[in-house]
Design a protein that fits this description.
- This protein has about 160 residues and is of the alpha+beta class.
- The chain has helices at about 10-20, 25-35, 85-100, 110-115, 120-125; strands spanning about 1-5, 40-50, 50-60, 65-75, 105, 125, 135-140, 150, 155.
- The protein has a single domain, classed as Aminopeptidase (3-Layer(aba) Sandwich).
- The chain contains five helices and nine strands.
- Helix 1 (about 10-20) packs antiparallel against helix 2 (about 25-35).
- Strands 1, 2, 3, 4, 5, 7 and 9 form a seven-stranded mixed beta sheet that branches. Strands 6-8 form a two-stranded parallel ribbon.
């Protein structure tokens, strides 16, 4: 499996991956809106045998530190449960660290995201409409976030998801 940055020729394939993974077009529209707004920081694809099978996107967040939001992560149904999503997330986190980002926030299932080091406890001091057990954070510099409180907000296109 090859993990690489999104290329302009990948846009349609990414849209199909995200639509198939979520079973609806809203998340694919979010990816397009984040790309169009300039909020995308990392957009990675997974390629197997010349075909794209997965995608992950990290976008800028408003936060008291240099922070990214992880969303969405999508894998074609036929390629799910083979580690594609996990590989994309790990690669994205490594690139975020290399890029000097300090934190990543995610809204998702704790059992899945905790394996990458995300915790609800790390996000608990931050004000967000998504605050709660599914809103998690990961410090990329050191063992904990600094500061550990304040307001955080996803990029504006997320508001369209409702």
């Amino acid at each position: 499996m090859l993990l690489r940055e999104e290329a302009p020729a990948d846009v349609e394939a990414i849209r199909r991956i995200v639509e198939h993974a979520f079973g609806r077009p809203e998340e694919a529209a979010l990816v397009d809106a984040l790309r169009d707004s300039g909020d995308t920081v990392l957009s990675l694809v997974a390629e197997e045998a010349g075909a794209l099978v997965g995608h992950v996107l990290f976008s800028r967040m408003e936060a008291p530190m240099r922070a990214l939001g992880l969303a969405p992560v999508a894998v074609m149904p036929g390629a799910q449960r083979r580690g594609v999503g996990g590989a994309l997330i790990r690669e994205g986190l490594a690139r975020a660290r290399q890029g000097g980002w300090e934190a990543v926030f995610v809204l998702g299932e704790p059992p899945y995201y905790e394996r990458f080091g995300f915790t609800a406890a790390a996000a608990s001091g931050f004000r967000s409409p998504y605050a709660g057990p599914y809103f998690m954070a990961l410090a990329l510099r050191g063992p904990e976030l600094s500061p550990r409180e304040g307001a955080v907000a996803y990029a504006r296109p997320f508001a369209a998801l409702g």
